[in-house]
Amino acid sequence: MTKRSPDRTGWSLTDHVCRACLGGRILKREVCSSVEPAFEFICSNCETRSTTTGGVTVQSICVCGSRFNDVPRGPGKRKGQNMGLVCMPNPNRGPSSPSVIVAGEAQ
Ligand SMILES: [Zn+2]
Ligand SMILES: [Zn+2]
């Protein structure tokens, strides 16, 4: 086993799922930057990707950051309003719902 050390070529799992396909697990890797640490995120399912420098986080593509202008559903909701969804461990994991992380409503 290797210790936790930056792996500049490999992807690692995050505890977040993709907002575009509502189910793809988001992977993360550190990318080389001469200026500051940066990460690249990609959905393992639909390959939506986001590259960050500095303050941007996985929430730019995960369900946690969903706003109504990104995913236009829910009549009566204002554009730009946070949808109140978060990425969470699947509370009912089993044969019919094997996902480890699912999109759920924030408590
Ligand atoms: Zn996706
Ligand atoms: Zn998330």
Describe, in plain words, how this protein is organized in 3D.
With 107 residues, the protein is mostly beta strands. The chain has one domain (12-105). It is 0% helix and 30% strand. The protein is built from no helices and six strands. It has strands at residues 12-17, 25-31, 38-43, 49-51, 85-89, 101-105. The termini are far apart. Bound molecules: zinc ion (2 copies). One zinc ion is lined by residues 18, 20-21, 24, 43, 45-46, 48.
Rg to the nearest angstrom?
15 Å
Q: Helices and strands: which structural class? A: mainly beta
The end-to-end distance, rounded to whole angstroms, is 37 Å
Ions, cofactors, ligands: which are bound? zinc ion
Provide mean pLDDT, rounded: 81
Helix content: under 10%
Strand order of the largest sheet: 1-2-3-4
What can be said about the biggest beta sheet? Answer: 4 strands, antiparallel
Order of helices and strands: EEEEEE
How many E-type strands?
A: 6
Question: What's the SSE blueprint?
Answer:
Layout: E1 12-17, E2 25-31, E3 38-43, E4 49-51, E5 85-89, E6 101-105
Antiparallel strand pairs: 1-2, 2-3, 3-4, 5-6
The structure holds zinc ion (2 copies).
Short description:
By secondary structure, the protein is an all-beta fold. The protein contains no helices and six strands. One zinc ion is lined by residues 18, 20-21, 24, 43, 45-46, 48.
